[in-house]
Amino acid sequence: MASGKIIPRLVEPRLVEALDDSPAVLIHGPRQSGKTTLAQIVGKKRGYRYFNLDDDVLRGAAEDDPMGFVGDLPDRVILDEVQRVPALFTALKSAIDSDRSLGRFLLTGSANVLLVPKLADSLAGRMEIIRLFPFAQCELDKKESTFLDALFSGNFKINKYERLQQKLPQCIVAGGYPAALARNTPRRSAAWYRDYVDAIVQRDVRDLARIASLDVLPRLLTLIGRQTSRLLNISELAGPFQISRPTIRDYVTLLEKVFLVDELPPWHTNRLSRLVKTPKLHIGDTGLAAALLGVNAQDLAADRELLGQFLETFVYQELRRQSSGHEDDIRFHHFRDKDGYEVDLVLEKGTRQVAGVEVKAAASVSSSDFRGLRKLASAAGNRFAAGVILYDGDISVSFGDSLYAVPIRRLWEAG
Known about the structure:
Mean pLDDT: 93
Number of strands: 15
Helix content: 40-55%
Strand content: 15-25%
Structural class: alpha/beta
Low-confidence stretches: none
Distance between the termini: 24 Å
């Protein structure tokens, strides 16, 4: 990514729509994912004033008198990093109740308010929440991806693609954070990621919880990076630490609150009784995971097991990032039963459609690789739209019954 160039974000149209019909809009997502840039780009066109609550003086004034602070704000305002003053949410609620002008408050936050119930409840019905992720590959390549539409329409054409080969581990290790991508070398990018984790722990985690041993969190996050795309196993995560399993569970949730970790819930249906109900754990960005593990693109290419894990997380994060700009609400799950059938990603569009995505680091696909997707199709019944195996091959082809082998490159390139 060339430094200094503004890359359009997939969620911008959704943000503009929300400001037109909601009193307050919150862009939340990890620090350094581009929230401030997006808010300022949209806000500048609409005459918003900008205030950053990372500023000590401004934050102190907001903490001492939240109601007075909000009352003195301009008519249209951007409040950056609003989670740093939780009392502001109650003050904003009061201000909105007295004046429900649309698009009045544009907020950004680096904590997941949906996992902080007091914050989420205080503005329920008054605030729209928009998730901003680090860059998707299609944003970086400045290409309009049609993958999700093709998936839910079951419409993948026979087509040839150039294999990614060595570019694949390079993309995985690079990750999606703008500041890391702006660094000149992979080594410098990795240094940025490591410093980033330390900064998050020292600043945002302190705001959310009182933890005696903050040094545990980077070590725990590194362990999660090594186990990314696996079923959540608290006992295994707690093993290296002299800390109880309930505390480690709380720490995982805390890392999720600051968008460093995602728990992928299991898909369920009444048609099947032997489903595994444990969530999968994914690190929030593969560039971050690679930096914490000290893995470069060459290392990743040489370690097929780790490549498979990272690739699954990379695809999951790419699809989540693409879905953030999609018109339909798309929810993500994984599927696994006690007989060994599994699908890496199950996507649900509303209540009407279910699709499955299996991820494979190999260059070939056979009919037997679709066993999990066939089980998912049977369980979903007439809701099943399509099943896809994403692989590092060079041809998109149908295997019948709405099942397809599709090159990974198709994720961000038109068919």
